[in-house]
Amino acid sequence: MVKHLQLLLIILAVLSARVTGSWTSLAFVIPDSYGDDLNLKCFDFGASFCTFGYLVKNNKWPLRWKEKYNQVFDILVHRAYKNINWFSFDNNELGRCCRFQNDMYEQEGRQKGLSPAEYYYKVTDFSHEGKRLNYLRVSNNFGCGYFIWAVGFGQGPLRVIEDTPRSTPMELETYFLIQGTAIFRFLTTGELLEQLTFLWFKQAFICPEKPWFCLEDLVHDEFKRRRLNENSTNLT
Length: 236
Prior knowledge:
This protein is an alpha/beta fold. It has helices spanning 2-15, 37-44, 67-80, 99-108, 116-124, 189-195, 198-206, 212-235; strands at residues 23-29, 50-57, 132-140, 146-155, 159-162, 175-179, 182-186. Strands 1, 2, 3, 4, 5, 6 and 7 form a 7-stranded mixed sheet that branches. The protein starts with a helix and ends with a helix.
């Protein structure tokens, strides 16, 4: 049964290429006791990061709702939500599963034409290839830059959501990202896009708590290196 489910997810991952061309982002909440409600809740979970969900902007027709969608998604998510820190932010099930996750699938999955298995694959795919910084939720730091409270990586242009939009341009474009007692500073948007990659985010925020994600990267990179060496050998 498990092997059949894994095969199904692989097939659906290939089929889900149909969402390419749309804006997509795997979004994360930064834990911090000085942020807003979501950041504080993530901080209280004791996590180094919290998965928020897979965000999608496209023009696809929604899938016709079927009762089995929630049942299938419950089964999939309940097995994995702790592994990726996809905790519920709903006060009625805080830190658990699965109403919040089902609501996220309804809004960002089914309504955007994705099946439960397709959305599950997207939200649990922590590979960094093909993903660039394209989502930020920020608040201004008294005109001296922005604090970053949420980030997202995927396909499409950068979208910046400011909690308290300003009527005048910010004097400084600097961005601050807090991790415990450490503060990372990015002086410009260009520097932010260049340095705040998904690989860097994983190494700084995800892998200290979930080291197997970086081990997967090492295995994948080693496989690519060997394939390149084999191809080079065949050409000589």
